[in-house]
Amino acid sequence: MLRQEQKLQQRQTLSPQQIQAIRLIELSEIELEEQIKQELIDNPALEEAEDFATADNTAETSPDADETAGGEESAEELLMGDYRNEDDMPAYLDRDSGSENRPHDEIPFAGETSFHEHLTEQLQLRDISEDDRKIAEYIIGNIDDNGYLQRTLPAIADDLLFQTGTETPVEKLQELLQIIQDFDPAGVGASNLQECLLLQLERKRGTDAIRLAYDIIDKAFDAFGKRHYEKIARQFGIGEDALKAAIQEIAQLNPKPGSSWNDAFAENMNRISPDFFVDENDGELTLSLNNSHIPALRISRSYNEMLADYTGNKANRTNERRDALLFIKQKIDAAQSFINAVQQRQQTLSATMQAILERQRDFFLSGDESRLRPMILRDIAERTGYDISTISRATSNKYVQTAFGIYPLKYFFSESMQNDAGDEFSTREIKKILKESIEGEDKQSPLTDDRLCELLREKGYAIARRTVAKYREQLGIPVARLRKFL
Predict the structure, then answer these.
(1) What are the backbone dihedrals phi and psi of residue 372, each rounded to the nearest 5 degrees, phi first?
(2) Is the domain of 198 the same as that of 244?
(3) β-strand partners of 276
(4) Torsion of CA 40, 42, 45, 46, to 10 degrees
């Protein structure tokens, strides 16, 4: 049986303006620049103020605008809002105290060809028919970002038959694949790791160590993968020195030939533009927000004039003009809301970074990682008065440029622990000790997690073995057995 009833409940909702402000906080400096460009295209009531001296958001309303004759006009007066008290230059673009007057060098943008474009360019240099070239390009398109051809040649032949209606023999595909496998980087086009390493070794000069390395990968790949070096030595009847020389040759090979190219390409294509600059002068730290690519925004003068014309001229108050007024008012409201959201973003980011700067002052003065204090999002939230979720958004994908390099803001956050003396220290300090200990270990007898745990205890850090293993894994360091080297 259906029943109707009333229920009173309290629910918190976000206004469109709040949602917009939250989204802008998440954006990096480059993303904000793109968002502003898009907003300038979408909203004709928003424009860029090229000259700060003439930037004016005031609505030049006529004195007659206040002399309304009825309630309708009063309602429209309320719709207008107040755009007459805006500063000539937005507060978020305080150029005098900002970063533009300081000589900060950005990481330059560099354009490069992608991995697959690099392979295609090499294909253009080969003397093959146009039909074979198209087939080879299709094979290249199936090579993944690591440089491997995961699909089998029969499967590729089926794809070509389905897409082009022509049957391509597997032998032809194998012939074209061998041409591609001759391209740089060495090892590209392999179907698995073993083939990839063999392709790279084939290009090296035929020294005894390289020939032995080739035989090991070709005939004892499983034993090599499991690091059964004694078994390999017995199989090939070789001594420790010869085995060590061969393993050193293998260690120099690239297991993912495509990834190195893609990483370099991504590094060049993804320009890191810092959101903040921290400068040090005689022990004093100065924080500035990177506003170099963010234009000054204002309400369009023409839209303000149209709004003032309607309210100031009673002859224009027709139904058609009223509809036009509502459209203009909507665009002006949206423009003003966007300007306010940008200003709120800049204020939030500045307050957040200032709190981080105060908390990690010793690091920003010295650049010494061991001087980073334990810090979590709640610490900054309490200092700034913002919610933890706001701090999380304000520190995501943001970078700060210091005298010691460019760091992501997330770099400064870490959990805290206590040593035997009861002093707090950052988990980053533990990871640094672990990394240095492993780098200086005897590769023939690498340090186990138990031994690493003992070393930390000797330094006054009472850390459990499972915690040591967790931090080692976070550093991307394998277990001792896999670090052993003859």
Answers:
(1) -70, 130
(2) yes
(3) 289, 400
(4) -20
